[in-house]
């Protein structure tokens, strides 16, 4: 996939930038590769830097309400200062190592309703920064994610929507400043007790923290309230576990009044810790492509986000106001409800109204 941008700061005759992704589909922990192709204009120019940004949309709480904000959550410098001569052609390879916590945007080959992500190229010349169009990136689930998503569908949970919430989950180590919520309506057998379920994956190379928030219905003399469960599962267990049974156990545990006190749920026996010695993703996930070169020295590292400490609310801890600017094809109909209502032809359509 390609986008082209004529550097507006220089007007007609300025350099053009053409960023090409080798493959727009990727996974958490896997590389996203491509080339930034530059063609010089009608005059020599001094480029200050070329930077790629992974861009997404998230919900931010501020001023007593939520609002949507678009921000880069990872920035990769692909070039420092250099001189681009008239008509000169350059092709700069890059590799973005997707964070393990990268949210899922694509399920069974279709866009997950509510999720958008793209790569944007930033080119700086003469203190003027020009940002190119967004090129869509499709982040697919890892096997452990997929099995758990399948289990929810098999149990009859109906997908509602997905979004990103800016903040930290209390007690869970995060490397990104947001987390994904995948929301479900309950099936009939749980509808008497649960209004909605929110599923969050916090993924690392060794394991996945699964956080569930249950919006429980109130009774005749009681108010509804939220309960939470937190479970640690191993990548290695993806294909050796009856995930339908496990997920059903998690839900039943929440519904059971004797075990539904607010706070962390306890995983079922055998599903609380990764297997000893497991430290690598399954084959095909998370490894750089053979023979692919590394970024230029001094470039290619992830940005760092300051941890602001934990807050009283279990589900979300806020960093402050600084971010404001900032299919499915398998039997049994498991794809129903997960997919976007309409295909997003251009990722820019999804971000319309939020661009700076």
Offer a quick outline of the entry.
With 356 residues, this protein is mostly beta strands. It has helices spanning 143-154, 243-255, 347-350; strands spanning 2-6, 16-21, 25-26, 31-39, 45-62, 65-79, 82-84, 89-97, 106-107, 110-111, 117-125, 128-136, 138-139, 158-166, 178-185, 194-203, 207-216, 225-234. Helix content is 8%, strand content 39%.
Write the layout of secondary structure elements.
Layout: E1 2-6, E2 16-21, E3 25-26, E4 31-39, E5 45-62, E6 65-79, E7 82-84, E8 89-97, E9 106-107, E10 110-111, E11 117-125, E12 128-136, E13 138-139, H1 143-154, E14 158-166, E15 178-185, E16 194-203, E17 207-216, E18 225-234, H2 243-255, H3 347-350
Parallel strand pairs: 3-13
Antiparallel strand pairs: 1-2, 2-4, 4-8, 5-6, 5-7, 5-11, 9-10, 11-12, 14-15, 15-16, 16-17, 17-18
Helix pairs in contact: 1-2
What does this structure look like?
- The structure is a single chain.
- With 356 residues, the chain is mainly β.
- The protein has two domains: 2-57 and 73-139, Immunoglobulin-like (Sandwich), CATH 2.60.40.640; 143-294 and 306-345, no CATH class.
- Helix content is 8%, strand content 39%.
- It is built from three helices and 18 strands.
- The protein has helices at residues 143-154, 243-255, 347-350, and strands spanning 2-6, 16-21, 25-26, 31-39, 45-62, 65-79, 82-84, 89-97, 106-107, 110-111, 117-125, 128-136, 138-139, 158-166, 178-185, 194-203, 207-216, 225-234.
- The strands form five sheets. Strands 5, 6, 7, 11 and 12 form a five-stranded antiparallel sheet that branches.
- Helix 1 (143-154) crosses helix 2 (243-255).
- It is elongated.
- It starts with a strand and ends in a 6-residue tail after the last helix.
- The relative contact order is 0.18.
- The model is unreliable at 1-9, 218-224, 258-314, 316-334 and 340-346 (pLDDT under 50).
